[in-house]
Amino acid sequence: MTAMASTPTPDAESVPSNWIDRLPYAAQPYARLARVDRPAGTWLLFWPCGWGLAASGGLVTRWWLLPLFLLGAVAMRGAGCVYNDIVDRDLDARVARTRDRPVASGAVSVRAAWVWLVVLALCAAPVLLALRPLAAGVALGSLALVAAYPFMKRITWWPQAWLGCTFNWGVLVGWTAVAAPSAAMALLYAAGVAWTLGYDTIYALQDLEDDALAGIKSSARALGSRARGGVAAFYVVTVALLGGALWLVRPDPLVLAALLPVAAHFAWQVTTLQPGDPRSALTRFRSNRLAGLLVFAACAVAGT
Question: What is the reported pLDDT for 12?
Fold first, then answer.
């Protein structure tokens, strides 16, 4: 996700990190490099895995996959952050809010960062071993998307779309861990991509000035003054696709009713968003952890 701002503001995923300060001094930059003190991104990576598992009917019979997916989300999100910081180290060094990141600041060498990335990726190995071959192959397929993502902000105005394809790959993994691919799975995945376009456009609203100075492209810059309308459109598409996916799973009005809480939450985000206020964007971005949970609940209604 885009991670720069023109004025020093709290990171969109930050939580109090005093516990990291209690770690051995040499370990602290590695913990920060993996963003273990900033869990929002982990939840945004995890919830789509839960959607796929719940909507495909595996929440009861394969419930033990859910904690494994959480472990995988923690490890792979950390590895992804390390990779992103390695690739973006020169850009990060030019921006006030990111110049103190461990690789950009030199606290962690590039070579050591690569080693840490491999360690984190290996921590996700138990998840692969627990999946049936089809799902394991699907999971490995995400690596190409992850590898390309940091470069998207340099070549397209819509890196958020690529992020959506990457962060919601868990829908496909969770679904194929239980059932065969289907149209419902494809619609659920597309809903996740639209959701990410919405929340990461909000995230990028913090970064408009510094992104322009650094030459970084984003959906927020592309939309300009139409950013709020764009986010609203992305969320409308998200709810419509969710409705279509879950209706295919269970054609029952109860399924559509189960989407009302997340629709109301999206409406709150859009109507209260102040595009020129970084703190407003921070709060609404972070609230998508709750949005992911609400979608998970709707998937559970449909799948069980």
Answer: 39
